[in-house]
Design a protein that fits this description.
about 260 residues, Rossmann fold
Length: about 260
């Protein structure tokens, strides 16, 4: 089957180009920097190689604010690490395959653990704007899956308790919750947010979950870090620019935590 029809073959082809461009046959860890998380990269070290995502086959240039659209190869405490500064979102209209292409490329490049970051709107009144929380579980409310056919992937423990434990070794006060992914790009109504709170959601966003599904199919262990950038149901509403600004302030503080977890893997 050609790579045009087989997304796994397309990912392997892209991983081969990645290996050629970075001069490194394998990477062990992936970090995906979501909205506003770019400053966290400073703590990971100087990239050995950095290139535009669009230099690799199958990647789209991110369109969301706060997504630089680069791929970097970094040695984090001696651990070969891929850093994606940005991601493709489902609301961009390309379908689920491009959303998870980067994850499949990482798996083909040897990655077996990933740190996925994002920004969220909190459904909990005991969380504060600027607070970072761990993703313990998720709700896929997009109506789609990146998997096609009889690929029966067990998501019972999609988000690694082991990796959450490593994160708490650096930040013991980290809380955790359930991340609900909506398709977007519009933000939810008050009634929708209230319904999601009642069915078990702690935070809302428009990314990460489809990547997590693809990762677990390929045996990648997951750590999720999410920044509270808005409190749902507030009269002031949600300002997209403020979402990014809040995440940027938090990301700089959490970069060393990500680096520490990678070195302990």
């Amino acid at each position: 089957m050609s790579t045009d029809r087989d997304p796994y073959a397309a990912a392997r082809a892209s991983a081969a180009v990645l290996a050629e461009r970075t001069g490194r046959a394998r990477h062990e860890v992936l970090v995906v920097l979501g909205s506003g998380w770019g400053p966290a990269a400073e703590a990971l070290g100087e990239p050995a190689v950095e290139l535009a995502m669009t230099d690799l086959p199958g990647f789209h240039a991110p369109v969301a604010e706060g997504h630089a659209g680069t791929v970097a190869s970094v040695l984090v405490g001696g651990v070969p690490t891929l850093v994606y500064a940005g991601r493709t979102h489902l609301y961009e209209g390309h379908g689920p395959v491009p959303v998870v292409h980067g994850m499949r490329v990482a798996a083909a490049a040897g990655v077996r653990a990933a740190v996925l970051t994002n920004a969220n709107g909190s459904l909990r009144d005991d969380w504060q704007v600027g607070q970072a929380v761990l993703v313990a579980d998720h709700l896929n409310l997009t109506g789609v899956s990146p998997l096609v056919g009889p690929r029966f992937v067990d998501l019972t423990d999609a988000w690694s308790a082991r990796l959450r434990g490593l994160a708490r070794a650096f930040a013991p006060a980290l809380d955790e919750g359930v991340y609900a992914m909506l398709r977007g790009p519009h933000y939810e109504t008050w009634a929708e947010a209230e319904w999601l709170r009642r069915v078990g959601g702690d935070m809302l966003g428009m990314s990460t979950v489809l990547e997590a599904v693809a990762a677990r199919e390929l045996g990648i262990e997951l750590l999720g870090l999410s920044t509270v950038t808005a409190i749902e149901g507030q009269p002031s509403g949600i300002d997209p620019a403020e979402v990014v600004a809040v995440a940027e302030r938090t990301a700089k503080r959490l970069g060393p935590l990500i680096a520490g977890v990678i070195q302990r893997l």
